[in-house]
């Protein structure tokens, strides 16, 4: 395994572990509901929910697309090297 691949793997493991250890506010939904009931406009909290949903929906597509791209690129390189 190449050194940069080892570094990339270690960085990915650290990011996954750090994300698992990070705690989020479990009452964000309740805070949003309270803010809208009191007549407030949920600008920042609503925007945060919006972007978090976009991230969660787009992440699997990005991962699968990246894997397909990598496989395609490796197959083209192998076909070009064999010719």
Describe the structure.
The protein has 83 residues and is mainly alpha-helical. It has a domain at 25-82. It is 83% helix and 0% strand. The protein has helices at residues 3-21, 28-37, 43-82. The chain is elongated. The two termini are 26 Å apart.
Shape: elongated
Beta-sheet strand percentage? under 5%
How would you classify the helix and strand content by structural class?
Answer: mainly alpha
Distance between the termini: 26 Å
Work out the oligomeric state of the chains in this entry.
single chain
Mean pLDDT: 77
- Helix % is over 70%
What's the count of strands? 0
Radius of gyration: 21 Å
Question: N-to-C SSE series?
Answer: HHH
Question: How many helices?
Answer: 3
Summarize the structure.
With 83 residues, the chain is an all-alpha fold.
Helices, strands, pairings?
Elements: H1 3-21, H2 28-37, H3 43-82
Key descriptive features of the protein:
single chain; 83 residues; mainly alpha
């Amino acid at each position: 395994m190449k050194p940069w691949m080892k570094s990339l793997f270690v960085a990915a493991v650290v990011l996954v572990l750090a994300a698992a250890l990070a705690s989020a506010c479990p009452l964000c939904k309740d805070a949003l509901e309270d803010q809208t009931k009191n007549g407030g406009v949920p600008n920042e909290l609503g925007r945060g929910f919006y972007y978090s949903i976009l991230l969660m929906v787009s992440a699997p597509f990005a991962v699968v697309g990246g894997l397909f791209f990598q496989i395609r690129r490796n197959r083209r390189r192998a076909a070009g090297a064999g010719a």
